[in-house]
Amino acid sequence: MAAGTTVDHLTETYRTHYRSLLGLAALLLDDTASCEDVVQEAFIRVHSARKRVREPEKTLAYLRQTVVNLSRSALRRRILGLKLLSKPMPDMASAEEGAYDQLERDSLIKAMKGLQRRQREVLVLRYFADMTEAQVAETLGISLGSVKAYGSRGIAALRLAMGAPA
């Protein structure tokens, strides 16, 4: 008789220890299907290499080690897969929406050019540079009241120029 684990011994080991090996895989992995795949693959690999298992009583130890190694490999593949997945694309506007947005930007820029210089400066610093009214006043060297007045008049002029309700 050739050295190694016999098919009969491996079959008996399968019947006796399948559930405990499945439990071992379950401790390492998170879904039943993966656990079953790992345990089945472990039996296939040990079956293919059964001649190298010189002592039949060590078959279970080989199976356990194979389950652990295959579980590690499955986890590594998952982690690598998650790393390689590209981030989902943000919701993109349709071509029509993009064209409409461009027209609105063009209209806004044209309307901004039609404002008085101080109104334009106040609105740009306040709303595009996201400065507070106090910061705008300090930057332009004007009073806080002037910032409020220029801002209010500038917005009213923009609404009028762009056809928005007052």
Question: Topology of this structure?
Answer:
Layout: H1 7-28, H2 32-48, H3 59-84, H4 95-113, H5 117-128, H6 133-140, H7 144-162
Helix pairs in contact: 1-2, 1-3, 2-3, 4-7, 5-6, 5-7, 6-7
Global structural class:
mainly alpha
Count of domains: 2
Give me the CATH architecture of the largest domain, please. Answer: Orthogonal Bundle
Order of helices and strands: HHHHHHH
Tell me what portion of residues adopts beta-strand conformation. Answer: under 5%
Helix content: over 70%
* CATH level-3 fold name of the largest domain: Rna Polymerase Sigma Factor, Chain: A
Low-confidence stretches: none
Number of H/I helices: 7
Largest sheet: none
Using only CA atoms, what is the Rg? 36 Å
Q: How many DSSP-defined strands?
A: 0
Q: Could you tell me the mean pLDDT? A: 85
CATH class of the largest domain: Mainly Alpha
- Tell the overall outline: rod-shaped
Distance between the termini: 99 Å
Characterization of the model:
The protein is an all-alpha fold. The chain has two domains: 7-84, Rna Polymerase Sigma Factor, Chain: A (Orthogonal Bundle), CATH 1.10.1740; 112-162, Winged helix-like DNA-binding domain superfamily/Winged helix DNA-binding domain (Arc Repressor Mutant, subunit A, Orthogonal Bundle), CATH 1.10.10. Helices cover 74% and strands 0% of the residues. The protein contains seven helices and no strands. Helix 1 runs antiparallel to helix 2 (32-48), helix 1 packs across helix 3 and helix 5 packs across helix 7. The longest helix has 26 residues, at 59-84. The termini are far apart.
